[in-house]
Amino acid sequence: MISDADTLAEDVHVSHLGRKRAPVWGNPLLSTTPVSMAIRDLAERTEALEDAVRAMSLELQRLKDDA
């Protein structure tokens, strides 16, 4: 049986954080990446994390209200 928490974790990973890629040129974690590209990518990653936290908090609130 899959719990609500498992489903939530899967949903958040797939929809918000599932775009993980191998470090290549253009990755903000490499020193060879131009600053403008690194800032844009880090901003996108931060936004994805904010969306994931928001989704988790809404789902946790829903679970709390259902209990």
Topology at a glance:
Elements lengths: L3 H14 L17 H32 L1
Task: Offer a quick outline of the entry.
The protein has 67 residues and is mostly helical. It has two helices and no strands. Helix 1 runs antiparallel to helix 2.
How would you describe what is shown here?
- The chain has 67 residues and is mainly alpha-helical.
- It has helices at 4-17, 35-66.
- Helix 1 (4-17) packs antiparallel against helix 2 (35-66).
- It starts with a helix and ends with a helix.
- The model has no long low-confidence stretch (mean pLDDT 76).
> What is the end-to-end distance?
19 Å
Shape descriptor = elongated
Major sheet description: none
Secondary-structure element order, N to C: HH
Mean pLDDT: 76
Overall structural class, as computed from helix and strand content, comes to mainly alpha
Total beta-strand segments: 0
Helix content: 55-70%
Beta-strand percent range: under 5%
Radius of gyration: 16 Å
Number of helices: 2
Low-pLDDT sequence parts: none
Any descriptors?
mainly alpha; 67 residues; 2 helices
